[in-house]
């Protein structure tokens, strides 16, 4: 049974940081490029970042460059998203995905003072 379970979301003040995690099971994690997406209220789901299978490359949406870092630990079947300098507009549900084929349930990030 394929599972992606996100955690680490929460309420943070503007300028703060959060680290999201996504634990994978039921498939060979290291065979998949892994993605973080976000979906703000009333908006469509959009890409945040993607990382290659070995973690040797990563790409970011423009809004995430310089603030967010995607990483993975294949030995732990875990994907991460370090988010720094958070802004109000980063408020959304964040989802991890394996090749846009498998999806987690999402974790809420709320940036508010």
General description of the model:
The chain is mainly beta and 113 residues long. 0% of the residues lie in helices and 50% in strands. The protein has strands spanning 3-7, 10-12, 18-25, 34-39, 46-51, 58-60, 68-73, 78-83, 92-98, 102-103, 107-111. A hairpin with a 4-residue loop joins strand 7 and strand 8. The protein starts with a strand and ends with a strand.
Helix/strand class? mainly beta
User: What is the string of SSEs from the N terminus onward?
Assistant: EEEEEEEEEEE
Q: How many distinct beta strands?
A: 11
Overall 3D shape? globular
Overall pLDDT? 97
Helix content: under 10%
Query: N-to-C terminal Cα separation, in Å?
Result: 40 Å
What share of residues are in beta strands? Answer: over 45%
Radius of gyration: 13 Å
**What profile does the largest beta sheet have?**
7 strands, mixed
Query: How many helices in DSSP terms?
Result: 0
Low-confidence stretches: none
Walk me through the topology.
Elements: E1 3-7, E2 10-12, E3 18-25, E4 34-39, E5 46-51, E6 58-60, E7 68-73, E8 78-83, E9 92-98, E10 102-103, E11 107-111
Parallel strand pairs: 2-11
Antiparallel strand pairs: 1-3, 3-8, 4-5, 4-9, 5-6, 7-8, 9-10, 9-11
Put the structure in a nutshell.
With 113 residues, this protein is an all-beta fold. Helices cover 0% and strands 50% of the residues.
Which labels suit this protein?
single chain; 113 residues; mainly beta; 4-stranded antiparallel β-sheet
